[in-house]
Write a structure and sequence with these properties.
Length: 275
Protein backbone atom coordinates (compact mmCIF):
# COMPACT_ATOMS: atom_id res chain seq x y z
CA UNK A 1 0.00 0.00 0.00
CA UNK A 2 1.20 3.52 -0.75
CA UNK A 3 2.20 5.76 2.15
CA UNK A 4 -0.54 8.03 3.48
CA UNK A 5 1.29 11.27 2.85
CA UNK A 6 -0.81 14.39 3.30
CA UNK A 7 -1.25 16.42 0.09
CA UNK A 8 0.34 19.82 -0.14
CA UNK A 9 -3.01 21.57 0.18
CA UNK A 10 -5.20 21.73 3.28
CA UNK A 11 -8.41 20.71 1.49
CA UNK A 12 -9.30 18.84 -1.73
CA UNK A 13 -8.57 20.89 -4.84
CA UNK A 14 -11.60 20.93 -7.16
CA UNK A 15 -11.08 22.91 -10.34
CA UNK A 16 -14.06 25.21 -10.92
CA UNK A 17 -13.82 25.08 -14.69
CA UNK A 18 -13.87 21.28 -14.97
CA UNK A 19 -15.31 20.12 -11.64
CA UNK A 20 -12.37 17.75 -11.36
CA UNK A 21 -10.30 16.87 -8.28
CA UNK A 22 -6.50 17.15 -8.31
CA UNK A 23 -4.67 13.91 -9.02
CA UNK A 24 -2.68 14.26 -5.79
CA UNK A 25 -5.82 14.47 -3.68
CA UNK A 26 -7.53 11.64 -5.52
CA UNK A 27 -4.62 9.29 -4.81
CA UNK A 28 -4.64 10.32 -1.15
CA UNK A 29 -8.37 9.56 -0.79
CA UNK A 30 -7.97 6.15 -2.42
CA UNK A 31 -5.11 5.27 -0.07
CA UNK A 32 -7.14 6.56 2.87
CA UNK A 33 -10.02 4.29 1.92
CA UNK A 34 -7.61 1.37 1.79
CA UNK A 35 -6.13 2.28 5.18
CA UNK A 36 -9.52 2.15 6.91
CA UNK A 37 -10.36 -1.21 5.42
CA UNK A 38 -12.32 -0.48 2.25
CA UNK A 39 -9.90 -0.99 -0.62
CA UNK A 40 -11.09 -0.13 -4.14
CA UNK A 41 -10.91 -3.12 -6.46
CA UNK A 42 -8.23 -3.50 -9.10
CA UNK A 43 -10.91 -2.70 -11.70
CA UNK A 44 -11.67 0.59 -9.92
CA UNK A 45 -7.97 1.48 -9.77
CA UNK A 46 -7.51 0.73 -13.46
CA UNK A 47 -10.58 2.70 -14.45
CA UNK A 48 -9.56 5.76 -12.48
CA UNK A 49 -5.96 5.61 -13.63
CA UNK A 50 -7.05 5.48 -17.27
CA UNK A 51 -9.42 8.40 -16.70
CA UNK A 52 -6.63 10.53 -15.23
CA UNK A 53 -4.16 9.53 -17.95
CA UNK A 54 -6.69 10.53 -20.60
CA UNK A 55 -7.09 13.91 -18.93
CA UNK A 56 -3.35 14.43 -19.01
CA UNK A 57 -3.01 13.35 -22.63
CA UNK A 58 -5.85 15.64 -23.69
CA UNK A 59 -4.14 18.61 -22.06
CA UNK A 60 -6.65 18.93 -19.24
CA UNK A 61 -5.61 19.53 -15.63
CA UNK A 62 -4.15 16.51 -13.83
CA UNK A 63 -7.33 15.78 -11.95
CA UNK A 64 -10.14 13.28 -11.75
CA UNK A 65 -13.88 13.59 -11.50
CA UNK A 66 -15.04 13.99 -7.89
CA UNK A 67 -18.21 12.00 -8.62
CA UNK A 68 -16.07 9.14 -9.92
CA UNK A 69 -14.00 9.17 -6.72
CA UNK A 70 -17.17 9.00 -4.66
CA UNK A 71 -18.37 6.06 -6.74
CA UNK A 72 -15.20 4.13 -6.02
CA UNK A 73 -15.41 4.89 -2.32
CA UNK A 74 -18.96 3.61 -1.91
CA UNK A 75 -17.57 0.51 -0.18
CA UNK A 76 -16.54 2.63 2.79
CA UNK A 77 -18.31 5.16 4.97
CA UNK A 78 -17.92 8.50 3.18
CA UNK A 79 -19.00 10.35 6.31
CA UNK A 80 -15.94 9.00 8.08
CA UNK A 81 -13.67 10.32 5.34
CA UNK A 82 -15.47 13.66 5.39
CA UNK A 83 -14.95 13.86 9.15
CA UNK A 84 -11.26 13.17 8.71
CA UNK A 85 -10.99 15.75 5.96
CA UNK A 86 -12.65 18.31 8.22
CA UNK A 87 -9.80 17.78 10.67
CA UNK A 88 -7.27 19.09 8.17
CA UNK A 89 -7.87 22.69 9.20
CA UNK A 90 -7.19 21.76 12.83
CA UNK A 91 -4.53 19.10 12.50
CA UNK A 92 -2.51 18.72 9.30
CA UNK A 93 -1.29 15.32 10.51
CA UNK A 94 -4.29 13.37 9.32
CA UNK A 95 -3.01 9.81 9.36
CA UNK A 96 -0.08 9.02 11.63
CA UNK A 97 2.03 5.92 11.14
CA UNK A 98 1.37 2.80 13.20
CA UNK A 99 3.11 -0.53 13.68
CA UNK A 100 1.15 -1.84 10.68
CA UNK A 101 0.78 1.15 8.33
CA UNK A 102 2.85 3.90 6.77
CA UNK A 103 1.86 7.44 7.70
CA UNK A 104 2.99 10.78 8.99
CA UNK A 105 5.24 11.52 11.95
CA UNK A 106 3.62 13.42 14.85
CA UNK A 107 4.81 16.87 15.86
CA UNK A 108 8.11 16.65 17.75
CA UNK A 109 7.68 19.67 19.99
CA UNK A 110 11.15 20.84 18.98
CA UNK A 111 14.38 20.59 20.91
CA UNK A 112 17.40 18.31 20.55
CA UNK A 113 17.01 15.82 23.41
CA UNK A 114 14.06 13.65 22.33
CA UNK A 115 13.83 11.11 19.54
CA UNK A 116 11.03 9.32 17.71
CA UNK A 117 10.13 5.88 19.07
CA UNK A 118 8.40 3.02 17.26
CA UNK A 119 5.17 3.74 19.15
CA UNK A 120 4.97 7.19 17.54
CA UNK A 121 5.98 9.23 20.59
CA UNK A 122 9.03 11.43 21.13
CA UNK A 123 11.08 10.61 24.23
CA UNK A 124 14.58 10.99 25.62
CA UNK A 125 16.51 7.77 24.92
CA UNK A 126 18.37 5.77 27.48
CA UNK A 127 22.10 6.00 26.86
CA UNK A 128 22.51 2.48 25.47
CA UNK A 129 21.26 0.99 28.75
CA UNK A 130 24.14 2.52 30.71
CA UNK A 131 23.90 3.40 34.40
CA UNK A 132 26.42 5.58 36.23
CA UNK A 133 27.04 6.73 39.80
CA UNK A 134 29.95 8.54 41.44
CA UNK A 135 30.95 10.07 44.74
CA UNK A 136 30.80 13.84 44.81
CA UNK A 137 32.61 14.19 48.17
CA UNK A 138 34.88 12.16 50.43
CA UNK A 139 33.16 9.90 52.99
CA UNK A 140 34.82 8.66 56.18
CA UNK A 141 33.89 5.70 58.41
CA UNK A 142 35.29 5.45 61.93
CA UNK A 143 35.16 2.57 64.45
CA UNK A 144 33.00 0.25 62.35
CA UNK A 145 33.50 -2.99 60.44
CA UNK A 146 29.82 -3.27 59.51
CA UNK A 147 29.49 -3.19 55.74
CA UNK A 148 27.22 -0.24 54.93
CA UNK A 149 25.56 0.89 51.71
CA UNK A 150 27.52 3.71 50.14
CA UNK A 151 25.61 6.99 50.03
CA UNK A 152 26.45 7.61 46.37
CA UNK A 153 27.47 4.39 44.62
CA UNK A 154 23.94 3.15 43.89
CA UNK A 155 22.05 2.58 40.62
CA UNK A 156 18.52 1.34 39.81
CA UNK A 157 18.54 -1.90 37.81
CA UNK A 158 16.02 -4.00 35.90
CA UNK A 159 15.65 -7.76 35.80
CA UNK A 160 18.42 -7.98 33.20
CA UNK A 161 22.11 -8.73 32.75
CA UNK A 162 24.79 -6.05 33.06
CA UNK A 163 28.54 -5.77 32.63
CA UNK A 164 29.97 -3.52 35.33
CA UNK A 165 33.06 -1.59 36.32
CA UNK A 166 33.70 0.01 39.72
CA UNK A 167 36.66 2.14 40.75
CA UNK A 168 37.31 2.79 44.46
CA UNK A 169 40.06 5.04 45.89
CA UNK A 170 40.60 5.01 49.67
CA UNK A 171 43.06 5.71 52.47
CA UNK A 172 43.38 5.48 56.25
CA UNK A 173 44.82 7.91 58.80
CA UNK A 174 47.43 5.60 60.33
CA UNK A 175 48.92 2.60 58.53
CA UNK A 176 47.39 -0.69 59.65
CA UNK A 177 44.76 0.88 61.93
CA UNK A 178 41.51 0.54 60.06
CA UNK A 179 42.06 -0.78 56.57
CA UNK A 180 39.28 -1.13 54.01
CA UNK A 181 36.77 -3.77 52.95
CA UNK A 182 33.86 -3.83 50.49
CA UNK A 183 31.36 -6.07 48.73
CA UNK A 184 28.52 -5.70 46.18
CA UNK A 185 25.60 -6.94 48.28
CA UNK A 186 23.93 -3.60 48.98
CA UNK A 187 20.60 -2.63 47.48
CA UNK A 188 17.18 -4.19 47.00
CA UNK A 189 17.63 -6.03 43.68
CA UNK A 190 17.68 -9.84 43.53
CA UNK A 191 20.98 -11.14 42.18
CA UNK A 192 20.46 -14.34 40.19
CA UNK A 193 24.14 -14.81 39.36
CA UNK A 194 27.35 -12.79 39.43
CA UNK A 195 31.01 -13.20 38.52
CA UNK A 196 33.46 -10.48 39.51
CA UNK A 197 37.00 -9.73 40.55
CA UNK A 198 39.13 -6.87 41.86
CA UNK A 199 42.68 -5.75 41.22
CA UNK A 200 44.62 -2.59 41.99
CA UNK A 201 47.23 -1.15 44.30
CA UNK A 202 46.76 -1.14 48.09
CA UNK A 203 50.24 -0.99 49.65
CA UNK A 204 51.45 -3.16 46.80
CA UNK A 205 49.86 -4.64 43.71
CA UNK A 206 46.67 -6.38 44.87
CA UNK A 207 44.51 -9.10 43.40
CA UNK A 208 42.20 -11.83 44.67
CA UNK A 209 40.44 -14.83 43.11
CA UNK A 210 37.20 -14.02 41.30
CA UNK A 211 34.00 -14.18 43.34
CA UNK A 212 30.65 -15.77 42.45
CA UNK A 213 28.62 -14.12 45.23
CA UNK A 214 27.83 -10.44 45.70
CA UNK A 215 28.50 -10.67 49.45
CA UNK A 216 32.06 -12.02 49.11
CA UNK A 217 33.95 -9.22 50.84
CA UNK A 218 37.34 -8.05 49.60
CA UNK A 219 39.37 -6.91 52.60
CA UNK A 220 42.68 -5.03 52.97
CA UNK A 221 44.17 -4.66 56.48
CA UNK A 222 46.65 -1.92 55.61
CA UNK A 223 46.07 0.74 52.99
CA UNK A 224 47.72 3.99 51.93
CA UNK A 225 47.70 6.90 54.35
CA UNK A 226 48.02 9.77 51.88
CA UNK A 227 44.85 11.30 50.45
CA UNK A 228 46.91 12.57 47.51
CA UNK A 229 48.19 9.03 46.72
CA UNK A 230 45.44 6.71 47.91
CA UNK A 231 45.07 2.97 47.50
CA UNK A 232 42.72 1.86 44.74
CA UNK A 233 40.92 -1.15 43.34
CA UNK A 234 39.16 -1.68 40.05
CA UNK A 235 36.24 -4.10 40.08
CA UNK A 236 34.94 -5.71 36.89
CA UNK A 237 32.39 -8.42 36.22
CA UNK A 238 28.92 -9.35 35.05
CA UNK A 239 25.72 -9.65 37.06
CA UNK A 240 22.23 -10.94 36.25
CA UNK A 241 19.23 -9.75 38.26
CA UNK A 242 16.03 -11.79 38.58
CA UNK A 243 14.28 -8.90 40.30
CA UNK A 244 14.49 -5.14 39.77
CA UNK A 245 15.70 -2.80 42.49
CA UNK A 246 18.96 -1.07 43.41
CA UNK A 247 22.56 -2.26 43.16
CA UNK A 248 24.85 -0.67 45.76
CA UNK A 249 28.47 -0.94 46.87
CA UNK A 250 28.91 -1.62 50.60
CA UNK A 251 32.08 -0.80 52.51
CA UNK A 252 33.59 -0.40 55.99
CA UNK A 253 36.87 -0.58 57.89
CA UNK A 254 38.62 -3.94 57.84
CA UNK A 255 39.31 -3.61 61.58
CA UNK A 256 37.76 -1.30 64.12
CA UNK A 257 39.80 1.86 64.65
CA UNK A 258 39.14 5.37 65.86
CA UNK A 259 41.40 6.41 63.02
CA UNK A 260 39.02 6.88 60.12
CA UNK A 261 39.05 5.22 56.71
CA UNK A 262 38.00 7.43 53.82
CA UNK A 263 36.52 6.56 50.42
CA UNK A 264 37.44 9.36 48.08
CA UNK A 265 35.33 11.56 45.85
CA UNK A 266 35.35 10.54 42.16
CA UNK A 267 35.12 6.88 43.00
CA UNK A 268 32.49 5.58 40.55
CA UNK A 269 30.48 2.65 39.23
CA UNK A 270 29.17 1.97 35.72
CA UNK A 271 26.77 -0.72 34.58
CA UNK A 272 26.10 -1.51 30.92
CA UNK A 273 22.98 -3.52 30.08
CA UNK A 274 23.81 -6.42 27.77
CA UNK A 275 20.70 -8.63 27.89
Amino acid sequence: MSSLVAPRYESPVIYSDTGRMSREWYQFLVNLAKAIGASPTSTDDTRLTLEMDEAVESGESQATDLSLTEEVLTTTDLSEIQTLLACLDEDPILVRFTAQRDGLVPASGGGTTTYLRADGSFAAPAVLGRLDAFKATDQTITSSTTLTNDADLSVPVAASTYDFEIFLAFYEVTLGTGGFQFDLAGGSSTVASILWGADGYVTAVAGNPAATAANTAQSYGSVATASSAPSWVRVTGQVSFSGAGTFIVRWAQASISVNGTTLKAKSFMTLQKVA
